[in-house]
Design brief:
mainly alpha, about 60% helix
């Protein structure tokens, strides 16, 4: 018996017990569903949103919340926060090119 068939049998028994359906082979990519957003992606998106809100405050009210909270724009902690948010923004560019999951009846 091939390992693949043995694992399918184990998953089928587990899914019947817990009420899950077996995922299709087409919908999985490296153990994750295509288009599924992982925790790292969510954290990056949150950081980008925080950065966008901070830039909104700068643009509208000339108030830099990060600089105010951490001792000025040139303080080392502020610069680290700016850098982390910039790296999160660069990572979020990859989300534009991520394949999306499509609903299909299989």
């Amino acid at each position: 018996m091939r390992t693949e068939h043995a694992l399918n049998g184990v998953f089928s028994a587990y899914s019947r017990l817990h009420g899950f359906s077996q995922p299709s082979r087409k919908s999985f990519y490296y153990g994750r569903r295509i288009g599924e957003i992982n925790m790292f992606d969510k954290i990056c998106l949150i950081l980008v949103i925080i950065g966008a809100l901070n830039w909104g405050l700068v643009g509208l009210f000339e108030f830099d919340l990060v600089a105010w909270a951490f001792g000025g724009a040139t303080a080392i902690i502020s610069r680290i926060i700016y850098t982390v948010i910039a790296l999160a923004g660069i990572w979020c560019i990859s989300l534009l090119f991520k394949e999306r999951a499509t609903a299909s009846a299989e």
